[in-house]
Amino acid sequence: MQTWWLTALGLAAGLCTSLSFVPQVLKAWREGDTEAISKRMYIASLIAYGLWIVHGLMIASVPVMLFNVVNVVLAGLILVLKLRGLKSAGVR
Fold it and tell me: Where is this gene product found (predicted)?
């Protein structure tokens, strides 16, 4: 398999993974309801994405590094919203 196909596959997979966070971010941001969000799961996810970034650096894979940085940002935002408890603060 040619290298550009592997990169394209990685970019497509990373895009799908990262886009899967967007509805959760929007719902938590707009509604402020983070009750059903697992804090432990997002902490574990952030650790995993950090490890994937290190792995991506070690193998010099742009898709692995790029989309795991995006995932850290999105999962981190969800975790911050969870910890802040926007609903209990009255912010919607």
Answer: Membrane
- State what percent of residues in the chain have pLDDT above 90: 60
d(CA 36, CA 69): 24
Q: Which two tokens stand for residue 78?
A: 């969800």
Q: How far apart are CA 91 and CA 40, in angstroms?
A: 24
Six token digits for residue 70: 């995006």
Q: Which residue has the higher pLDDT, 90 or 25?
A: 25
Q: What is the pTM of this model?
A: 0.82
Amino acid at 47: I
Contact between 35 and 82 (Cβ < 8 Å): no
**For range 15-21, the mean pLDDT:** 92
Q: How many CA atoms, within 13 angstroms, populate the side-chain half-sphere of residue 88?
A: 7
